[in-house]
Specification:
Helix 1 runs antiparallel to helix 2. With 130 residues, this protein is of the alpha+beta class. Strand 2 and strand 3 form a beta hairpin. The chain contains 2 helices and 5 strands, in the order E-E-E-E-E-H-H. It has a single domain, classed as SH3 type barrels. The longest helix has 17 residues. The C terminus is likely disordered. The N and C termini lie far apart (35 Å).
Length: 130
């Protein structure tokens, strides 16, 4: 079974398809790496801060299984799948850096949530790497 990329909510992950339910347009996906960290906030009101609840969005865990829309599944075109922890750090760092460069209220509200996740993910010294 080859590796694929799939989108789950606002994150993009590398993993394997375990099962497909074509009639429901979904696939059971197992996570092996993180390509893009999920965006913070309300899924239904992206980049808005005036929402009833501004969610902290965590990345899916290593080997976690979840149903993804089958239409989001794309081939993974590289030989090696990155190490989960390294891919999580890279995705987190990229997301964090983009937020620091964004002057919007959404970005300002998202930064503390990502900083909390840094501790939860045990990504010590991530600030020191650009």
């Amino acid at each position: 079974m080859s590796f694929v990329k799939a989108k789950y909510k606002t994150g993009i992950y590398i993993g394997k398809i375990i099962q497909v339910e074509e009639e429901q347009n979904r696939a059971l996906f197992q996570v092996f790496a993180v390509e893009n960290h999920p965006k913070q906030g309300d899924l239904h009101n992206p980049k808005q801060v005036d929402v009833p609840y501004f969610h902290q969005r965590k990345a899916l865990s290593y080997l976690e299984k979840t149903w993804v829309p089958y239409t989001t599944v794309k081939p993974y075109e590289y030989d090696d799948v990155p190490d989960y922890k390294e891919s999580l750090e890279r995705a987190w760092r990229s997301s964090y850096k983009a937020l620091l460069e964004d002057d919007s209220e959404w970005a300002k509200k998202s930064v503390p949530l990502l900083e909390e996740l840094k501790m939860e993910y045990h990504l010590n010294d991530v600030h020191d790497k650009s």
